[in-house]
């Protein structure tokens, strides 16, 4: 073989080796080309993490908004609804009472929790006495008072309506706890014909019972 042919063969071999080297180096320097699935998988996992955080926030909001309320319609001796009370538990454990009255005689009226969940017309005596789990005397002006079911008087306007809101720490809506309104016999809300004097025994000389509603879930 001539010297010229030997040189040509050597040059071609060197060029081929150099090309293969460049191709291998390019693949090694680009990890995205080497395994693109890795990048896609990481992006999907991160996105799922953000969704989980949003779901946790939604569940927390739902728990806060899910505070329990007890709705108690009160009816008169003729069976007509003359009031509605909404009971709810505050964060500090007190009970909030929101009472709306209509079609009742104007003036002050006693308003109590009674010890039995029965409202049999026309006199509502079936509701028993005031709710008194601690065996105290009636009335906030009594030396040994008051009953857990004693509330302040409500005042009905000339149009027969009233809207009253107040809190009490004498009862709870939690079943099984002391002073719970959910007893074996139940409890009821009662409005009287007259005002409570906060001291006469056993019920403040409040007169007849003119409206009654059972406290139940």
How does this model look, in words?
Its cofactor is Zn(2+); Cu cation. Residues 42-59 have a biased composition (Acidic residues). This is Superoxide dismutase [Cu-Zn]. The structure is a single chain. It is built from three helices and nine strands, in the order αααβββββββββ. It has helices at residues 3-29, 31-34, 36-65; strands at 69-75, 81-89, 95-101, 107-109, 111-114, 154-156, 162-168, 187-192, 209-215. A four-stranded antiparallel sheet has the order 1-2-3-7, with no helix packed on it. The longest helix is centred in the N-terminal third of the chain and has 30 residues, at 36-65. With 217 residues, it is α+β, with helices and mostly antiparallel strands. It has two domains: 3-65; 69-215, Immunoglobulin-like (Sandwich), CATH 2.60.40. Helix content is 28%, strand content 24%.
């Amino acid at each position: 073989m001539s010297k010229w042919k030997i040189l040509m063969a050597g040059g071609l071999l060197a060029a081929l080796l150099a090309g293969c080297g460049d191709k291998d180096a390019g693949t090694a320097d680009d990890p995205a080309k080497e395994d693109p699935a890795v990048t896609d998988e990481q992006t999907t996992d991160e996105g799922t993490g953000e969704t989980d955080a949003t779901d946790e926030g939604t569940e927390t909001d739902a728990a806060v908004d899910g505070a329990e309320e007890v709705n108690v319609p009160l009816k008169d001796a003729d069976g007509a609804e003359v009031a509605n009370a909404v009971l709810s538990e505050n964060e500090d454990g007190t009970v909030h009472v929101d009472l709306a009255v209509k079609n009742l005689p104007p003036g002050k009226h006693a308003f109590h929790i009674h010890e039995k969940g029965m409202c049999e017309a026309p006199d509502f005596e079936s509701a028993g006495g005031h709710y008194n789990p601690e065996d105290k005397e009636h009335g906030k002006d009594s030396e040994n008072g008051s009953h857990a079911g004693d509330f302040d008087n409500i005042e009905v306007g000339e149009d027969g309506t009233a809207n009253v809101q107040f809190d009490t720490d004498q009862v709870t809506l939690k079943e099984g706890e002391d002073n719970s309104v959910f007893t074996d016999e139940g409890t009821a809300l009662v409005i009287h014909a007259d005002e409570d004097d906060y001291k006469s025994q056993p019920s403040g000389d409040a007169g007849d019972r003119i409206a009654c509603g059972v406290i139940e879930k």
